[in-house]
Specification:
Chain lengths: ~475, ~1100
């Protein structure tokens, strides 16, 4: 019996060592095996700012996003269209998303307010901040490009904050990509937001190139004049009349820009009147979304210009003739639809129009208002000369306004018929001049309350950020 | 050595107590076994070495010569060898064993080899009595008299045997006291005492799967159903075969406790959502892991979402249900911990069919079926619709219908009535299914080759269809010495799904019943002078098609290097390719707008390979059996996807060519890689068939986590006590045929969070004068695994020889360190960040299953099976929820299925619009703080009842599924009653009409000036609100199957092995109070499940 042990044929060491080897191979190769390369369709952030080319792609990414997504693209969910509804420029028969805008009955849950006017601008602000932070750590970029990109990023940040502060009042001022900080950020007083916008624009103005060489002479990326033009607008909005006049003059005096006599050419791509345009990037036959959504191509077209805007034009105003279109239905009822006709192309594969963000005419009207406010109402270098420049192009007689108050009203009227359905100018004007109650409150189809001048903060956003508070009236 | 032999003899002679004898005998047996193993080893080494040729020489001399040549020592008693006398041998180049065998042939000697020593001794039998040897012949057949080839015929207690030939015949040398054992894979073993017969013909019976023999597949190992420690449910091919379905997941609905399956749409090819034991994760995936023949199978749809007609295209369509042998679902920690990080949501194992030994058999199954929409909604007719519309205008201040309100302003013919549901969904779908398989083999090698073809039309008008062809191959081989085994399987499926680009189901409710005629008298589409924008038949010209190719192959090789120790490796590869096309032709658009055509091309590829080397060891220790399994996994998945659009086409003929698109854009182009590596093990000890311990563990590494967080350990302990094997139970509870108590506890993980989430990266947008990129995400590199702790207790009982069996289980899964896409405010730039949050989610539940054989007689049998699950879900803890994004969605202590909703008090009897409760009293009833009503949207319990009746050749099966649940009602997908061009269910006629009316349907309205429209929007769109959560419970006759087996003699006469005719029906009727298309998924956007009736014939040649 004592031999039993000796007879045992199973050598435990054999398989134990085998398994041990197996385990060792397994464990040893573990770390290496699961280390994977970054995906081919993504670039690691550190590499983006290692050279000029990738970093420039990052700034282009912002404009590509802007023209593809709602806020800045001029389509059905854009500032251009929705703010035209909120003001008194357009109406719609669409039943779902737009009506709360034209009847001014927005709710804290209205999705478009959140996505279009809040989420998207803050996303672009994040993109801009990411570029600023990425470049700060970069050593591989050339100094010239660094300056240009820093200028553009700051411009974009200012541009987005400008719309946010105008639409929502006090808004969180976001200057970092740190999500922990931005997650619980509180509202910043509007005045402080404006201060930062001005600081960003002044800085951008310094750093940006003077011409459009950065974008192959196409007017599709901000340069010094673009920053100056927005700065003029911001000074105007903050009642800094002298600075507004100076900045507007700088743009008007720039030989790159001139008012075009032919109103049908103003919105062509890279027109001399344009200061900043966004180029189309879609693969569908879209020149601009504005052209696509405004120009009727069938009966029962659901978007049309209000009678208020139609009647606002003086007789023989060329803008009424060239920028308002008429469509007669073919269903036998001969219903006529009036529509914004600044962009002439509904769809087409040859691209001749870009979406206008800023143009020279606005600068004349900014300067006119700044001058009027400084009591330069008539005479040389006065509000009158600027207003008449715009009126003259439209084929109208010089203005008869000769007092400050009359001139300001004349400017409001001129802004209305010059800048309609462009980036919500009318809505912002009525708000900043405290005329919204009087003008919009008088319209029967509006469900107007004075608190409607500010949009509601979204419910989900407040769920996600406990420090956010709601605007009055919601 | 002599002494030893003698001493045994002494014990035997002196009749000492039996126990000592038994013990000794056991030890001897053990020694013998060990010797036997050693012997095999030696034989391998000693082959072809020895040459001895002598005539009439003393045996001792020959042995010495062999000792010299082989180098082995010899041990024997001289007396014994001398007694054997002289021998004559002629050994040429023989192995040691052959040489020794030749020496001692006919001498009543035996030998064994221990280490390097050959021990020779007297044959034990010699001591007893010399039996008479003779040759016995016979034939082995199956019960139908077909010869069985390769049957093992063994003399019991020896290794002597024979194998049957092609005609099933065998011959073997036996002694008359021998017992023959006939064994054959897939057949019951048979033992027959020879007596003194010269011929023994045997017919073997096929193995019948009774509970005690049933084994379940636990993934890396199989376990006897009776001895399993974990929670595993199984559905076998018999249940799947009876259902006329294309997707195997559909065949599982209601059949397994704890497994809840929902069909996304009635359109062929659509996905199913599968949930095993509730929602474990707030935000990460809750889909189980799928494994087909050992290879992980992608459960995520590759669809690029260019069409929603076929929601979440299910990769499972690529598995032909006819190729499936069984589907096992692993639920508790004991069963799933071996899958580590991937097992948190359970594991679904699909095993395809394997060949069976026996005569080559051809099975053919052909069926044809018809399907229709099971249930239509009861909508308003034209008269009621017009009443609603006119009343809406009256309610909105009496403004007359506008020029664009064509449905009531006189432009359209208001005497028209079209039942759009029947017009658009009313066709009968025809389906044809053909499956052919050839299988066969012998005991060592089996194969099956199968092919399937499926074609079906749709219920939509037009030439839409779904078709697929599939092939299945499986080969099994075992080497002659039974040590080496190889298994190879391959599946290939190619399918094509051609459907309308948009599911017309929603149009059927969203069209006015007085809408114009579809076609003009000249046969062209009617746009009614451009007043009818929504001609649904124009929409049907927008088509969508997808083609997929699926290939899976798996190989497993194993070799038994030592007795009980097996080395094994599986290698698997799958590839799934999906191509999608969606077209928007010019012909589908109103010519008045001079439209251009558009095309969308999408698709994806998924490629996975896996290698899993393993070692298995089995050994008896004491009174128990120990099994050990260790292995490692190397796996890689690569997914690619793309989506390209083409626009501006001026001719429909060019649509299919992206190159002819005037404008083209690449929308997405994605690539993800996933790598996974692990070491795993299992240790199982079965003591006496009564106490079973099962320990499993895994160490996982996944590329989905950032550096330093890639590895984690998971493990579990399972125990079972088969108390029915205890004598005291046997004696006291004789009617209890089986009883088992089992419990398990362990951890699994969840890494279903998508790839690269820890990487801070940029990706491309449309080029903006050159490439354009934007950041992808906010990345936190140090998030880690979500951990799931599972506890389970179960009881299995069998009564009256297992005629009644039941299983009851209670489980508690606690998932913590929740990996969530934590919602962020938009001020951060993104809507969420992937991160660990300290929430703990608990799923508990009771599962119960009862199987009974109600009647079992010669001609008639009736069996039933019932299962029910009571799931419960609770957010156990969430520190800091008050300041988190989830504070208005979830509540600690409540179920994740519960929603915080606005509370609708009812319809204001004065104003006729919904009133919401103003919870915080701020005057605004729709504010963020006004979510108060807590209602559960989910299941209270669910299950199924299955009955099977057999009478001679007839078999009737029916299966009832029942679900007690709540869901959103029709108001979740309809517009406010009164709005233009949208029909409504008949229930809206109970609306408020005048002050004082008490009802829960608000007034008809069509204008945003009426607050009613806004409030309606808050019922769901911007809501949801409490009053649209309604009871959506149902009982459904999910399946009924009637079949008739041709009597054997008739089948024989037709030269068939068997023939069966059958009639099957799916989703025959549903009992429910739910208002909508179907309570299973309350959606109005997708085609509801169809009712199908199919008939067919199954023959075996």
């Amino acid at each position: 019996m004592k031999n039993r042990k000796k007879y045992s044929p199973v050598k435990p060491l054999n398989w134990v060592s085998f398994i041990a080897i197996l385990f060792t191979i397994g464990l040893g190769s573990c770390e290496k095996f699961i280390r994977i390369e970054p995906p081919i369709d993504q670039i690691v952030r550190a590499n983006v700012f290692s050279d000029d080319a990738a970093a420039i792609s990052a700034i282009r990414g912002i404009y590509s996003a802007m023209i593809s997504e709602g806020f800045a693209n001029g389509a059905l969910s854009s500032a251009t269209y929705l703010l035209a509804l909120s003001a008194d420029e357009m109406k719609t028969t669409e039943t779902k998303f737009q009506p709360p805008f034209y009847s001014n009955s927005l709710l804290a849950g209205t999705e478009n307010v959140y996505t279009i006017f809040w989420k998207q601008p803050y996303t672009y602000i994040y993109y801009a901040n990411a570029i600023l932070e990425g470049m700060a750590a970069s050593t591989g970029m050339t100094a010239a490009n660094k300056l240009q990109l820093e200028g553009e990023a700051k411009f974009v940040r200012a541009f987005c904050h400008f719309y946010l502060v105008n639409l929502f009042g006090d808004v969180p001022l976001v200057q970092t990509t740190d999500y922990q900080q931005n997650r619980t950020i509180s509202r910043t007083p509007a005045q402080q937001v404006y201060q930062q916008i001005i600081a960003d624009l002044l800085d951008a103005k310094e750093k940006l190139a003077g011409d459009y060489s950065i974008s192959n002479t196409e007017r599709i990326r901000p340069n010094k004049a673009v920053a100056t033009a927005l700065l003029a607008r911001v000074y105007l909005y903050t009642d800094d009349w002298a600075n507004a006049e100076t900045q507007a003059s700088a743009v008007i005096g720039n030989s790159n820009y001139r008012l075009l006599d032919d109103l049908n050419q103003v919105f062509l791509k890279n027109s001399e009147e344009s200061i900043w345009q966004l180029m189309t990037v879609t693969s569908s036959s879209i020149n601009t979304y504005e052209g696509n959504i405004f120009i009727p191509v069938s009966n029962n077209w659901s978007r049309y210009v209000t009678s208020e805007l139609l009647t606002a034009f003086e007789a023989n105003d060329k803008r009424r003739e060239h920028w308002i279109g008429t469509y007669t239905s073919t269903d036998g009822t001969n219903t006529i639809t009036y529509y914004p006709f600044k962009y002439k192309i509904s769809s087409g594969t040859t691209i001749t129009e870009y979406s206008m963000v800023m143009r020279l005419a606005e600068q004349y009207l900014i300067r006119a208002e700044a001058r009027a406010q400084q009591n330069k109402v008539t005479g040389a270098n006065s509000a009158e000369t600027d207003v008449n420049t715009i009126r003259g192009r439209a084929g109208l007689n010089p203005t008869v306004a000769n007092t400050k108050a009359a001139m300001l009203l004349a400017i409001e009227q001129e802004r209305r018929v010059e800048l309609f359905t462009e980036w919500g100018h009318r809505w912002l004007d009525l708000k900043r001049t405290n005329r919204a109650n009087a003008v919009l409150g008088a319209l029967s189809y509006k469900n107007w309350q004075s608190t409607d001048v500010l949009f509601p903060i979204n419910t989900t956003e407040m769920d996600n950020n406990p420090n956010l508070t709601q605007n009055p009236g919601y | 050595m002599k002494k030893i032999v003698q001493s045994i003899g002494t014990y035997e002679d002196s009749h000492v107590n039996r126990q000592v004898y038994k013990k000794m005998f056991l030890i001897m047996k053990l020694i013998m076994i060990l010797m036997f193993f050693a012997c095999i080893q030696v034989s391998a080494r000693g082959y072809g070495q020895i040459t001895v040729s002598v005539k009439n020489a003393p045996m001792q001399k020959v042995l010495k010569e062999i000792q010299k040549q082989s180098g082995y020592n010899f041990l024997y008693s001289y007396d014994l060898i001398e007694k054997a006398g002289n021998i004559s041998v002629d050994i040429q180049d023989a192995s040691l064993t052959d040489a020794v065998n030749t020496c001692i042939k006919g001498k009543n000697l035996t030998y064994s080899i221990v280490d390097n020593t050959v021990v020779i001794k007297a044959k034990e039998a010699d001591v007893v009595q010399q039996p008479v040897k003779y040759t016995l012949k016979g034939k082995v057949t199956d019960k139908n008299g077909n010869p069985l080839t390769g049957v093992n015929v063994l003399i019991k207690g020896t290794i002597k045997g024979a194998v049957t030939d092609d005609d099933g015949k065998y011959s073997i040398e036996v002694s008359d006291n021998a017992i023959l054992v006939f064994s054959f894979l897939g057949y019951q073993k048979k033992e027959i005492a020879v007596g003194n017969r010269k011929e023994i013909n045997v017919s073997l019976l096929e193995e019948i799967a009774e509970l005690k023999e049933v084994t379940v597949n636990a993934g890396y190992y199989t376990v006897k159903e009776k001895e399993r420690t974990g929670s595993i449910s199984k559905v076998d091919s018999k249940a799947i075969e009876k259902q006329p379905v294309t997707n195997p997941l559909q065949a599982l609905q209601g059949r397994m406790p704890g497994v809840f399956i929902q069909q996304q749409s009635g359109v062929s090819g659509s996905g199913f959502s599968v949930n095993i034991r509730g929602i474990n994760s707030i935000a990460a995936g809750n889909e189980p892991m799928y494994i087909i023949d050992g290879v992980p199978f992608t459960s995520t749809s590759l669809a690029s979402r260019i069409s929603f007609t076929v929601p979440d295209i299910s990769p499972f369509n690529s598995i032909n249900p006819a190729d499936i042998e069984s589907i096992e679902v692993l639920k508790d920690a004991d069963a799933t911990a071996i899958y580590g990080s991937r097992g948190a949501n359970g594991v679904v194992l699909v095993t395809t069919k394997k060949g069976k030994a026996g005569k080559t058999k051809v099975d053919i199954n052909v069926s044809h079926g018809f399907s229709k929409v099971g249930h239509y909604m009861n909508l308003l007719n034209t008269e009621q619709y017009l009443e609603m519309r006119h009343e809406a205008f009256k309610n909105d201040g009496g403004t007359p219908p506008q020029p664009w309100d064509y449905d009531i302003n006189g432009v359209w013919d208001t005497t028209r009535y079209t039942d759009w549901q029947r017009e658009l969904l009313g066709h009968t779908k025809q389906q044809t299914n053909v499956n052919v398989s050839i299988s066969g083999g012998n005991e060592l090698t089996q194969f099956v080759i199968g092919g399937g073809f499926w074609h079906e039309t749709t219920v939509f008008p037009g030439d839409f269809f779904y078709g697929k062809g599939s092939g299945h191959f499986n080969l099994n081989h075992l080497s002659e010495n039974k040590k080496f085994r190889i298994l190879l399987s391959a599946n290939y499926t190619s399918d094509k799904n051609f459907q309308p680009a948009d599911d017309p189901t929603y149009s059927t409710i969203n069209l006015a019943p007085d809408a114009p005629a579809i076609y003009k008298t000249n046969g062209t589409l009617n746009w009614e002078n451009s007043t009818w924008w929504d001609n649904p038949f124009a929409a049907l010209l927008n088509t969508y098609e997808n083609k997929s190719d699926y290939f899976l192959t798996n190989m497993a090789v194993s070799y038994e290097i030592l007795p009980g120790l097996k080395l094994k490796s599986t290698l698997g590869y799958t590839s799934l390719i999906l191509d999608e096309q969606r077209f928007k032709p010019i012909s589908a658009q109103n010519p008045a707008i001079n439209p251009t055509g558009g095309a969308y091309f999408g698709g994806g590829k998924s490629k996975t390979w896996i290698i899993e080397p393993q070692a298995e060891y089995e050994r008896k220790i004491g009174r128990g059996k120990l099994s050990i399994l260790v292995g490692t996994t190397f796996q890689q998945d690569v997914h690619t996807g793309e989506y390209i659009t083409g626009g501006g086409y001026t001719s429909d003929a060019l649509l299919k060519n992206i190159k002819s698109a005037p404008k083209m854009g690449i929308q997405t182009n994605t690539y993800t890689q996933y790598r996974y590596q692990a070491v795993f093990g299992r240790l199982n000890y079965n003591l006496d068939g009564k106490y079973i311990f099962n320990i499993t563990g895994r160490r996982d590494g996944s590329s989905r986590f950032g550096p330093g967080k890639q590895f984690a350990n998971f493990g579990s302990l399972g125990m079972a006590w088969i108390f029915s094997n205890e004598n005291f139970i046997k004696n006291s509870l004789p009617y209890l045929s089986f009883g088992k108590l089992r419990a398990s506890y362990g951890t699994t993980g969840n890494d279903r969070i998508g790839d690269y989430k820890y990487l801070d990266t940029y990706s491309s947008k449309n080029a903006y004068q050159g490439s354009a990129i934007v950041p992808n995400r906010i990345a936190i590199a140090d998030y880690a695994w979500e951990e799931n702790k599972k506890l389970e207790v179960g009881l299995n009982l069998g009564f009256i020889q297992d005629r009644i069996t039941m299983e009851a289980g209670w489980y508690r899964n606690r998932s913590s360190n929740q990996l969530v896409g934590f919602p962020l405010p938009a001020t951060t730039g993104f809507s969420s960040v992937t991160s660990n949050f300290p929430a703990t989610v608990q799923n508990t539940g009771l599962e119960f299953m009862l199987n009974t054989i109600n009647i079992k007689s010669k001609d008639f049998s009736w069996t039933s099976s019932f299962n029910i699950t009571f799931p419960q879900n609770k957010l156990v803890a969430y520190p800091g929820i008050e300041t988190s994004s989830y504070r208005n969605r979830y509540e600690v202590g409540e179920s994740l299925y519960k929603r915080k909703l606005r509370h609708v008090i009812g319809v204001d009897p004065q104003t006729g619009v919904y009133i919401f409760e103003d919870v915080n009293g701020d005057g605004n009833t729709l504010g963020a703080e006004d979510y108060i009503a807590i209602k559960k949207v989910g299941q209270d319990y669910f299950g199924g009842l299955y009955n099977s009746l057999n009478y001679k050749g007839w078999q009737l099966d029916f299966f009832l599924q029942f679900v007690k649940q709540t869901a959103y009602d029709y108001r979740s997908f309809t517009v406010a009653p009164g709005n233009m061009n949208a029909n409504q269910p008949i229930e809206v006629m109970q609306r408020w009409q005048k002050p004082g009316d008490i009802t829960d349907i608000q007034m008809f309205t069509q204008s945003w000036d009426n607050p009613g429209l806004t409030y309606y929007d808050y019922l769901y769109g911007s809501g949801p609100a409490s009053n649209i959560v309604v009871d959506a419970s149902f009982i459904r006759l999910q399946n009924i199957s009637l079949s008739w087996q041709l009597p054997e003699n008739l089948a024989k006469a037709a030269c068939l092995q068997s023939c069966r005719l059958y009639l099957q029906a799916q989703n025959l009727f549903t009992v429910t109070n739910y208002i909508g298309f179907d309570p299973e998924r309350g959606s109005g956007y997708n085609l509801p499940p169809l009712r199908t009736i199919a008939f067919g014939i199954q023959i075996a040649l």
